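Good day; I would like, with your permission, to put a structural problem before you. What I wish to show you is a protein chain and, alongside it, a tokenised description of its three-dimensional fold. Here, with my thanks, is the record as I have it:
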Amino acid sequence: MRRFQRGDARAFPELVRRHRAAVFAFVLRWTQDRARAEDILQETWLKVVRASSDWSPRARFTTWLYTIARNACVDGARRERARAAEPLVTEPVSTEAHDPERAAAASELRPVLEAAIAALPDAQREVFLLREMAGIPFHEIARMTGAPEPTVKSRMRYALEALRTRLTAAGIDAPAGGQVA
């Protein structure tokens, strides 16, 4: 990002290459709609370009990027609510290595997990996706969302409990250690 800020136009495609897939997966899970996710992803990268002078090296680039993506998702959701919303379509994104055994297990689990994530209240889904999809620490999620860190942690706990309950009800046992995702 520092190279891009200094005017090196070749640095931007490198940023996109490094972060596009993960940000797209985050946005897609948030929106549950591939076309909307593509639009929001484009909007995110445009905002990165326009606000590049605002980024400071003392902040993690990924946190800044996911904040922009999150805000674009929130804005997109507001726009969707303002007009007649179309039904959401769940299209899972494969982020796993091509391992046939793992892919078979994931293909059974993924629709149930995606539905369970989609059913979470917005605040819980937001924290879950930022933490589990983007790997953003709780204190940074708190700063991004404007919620106190204990609230963010509570939302994560409630999200995990809800996911565990839904998965158990679907006949899927939580893995050893109790982690859902």
In short: Residues 95-174 form a domain with the Arc Repressor Mutant, subunit A fold (CATH 1.10.10.10). The mean pLDDT is 81.
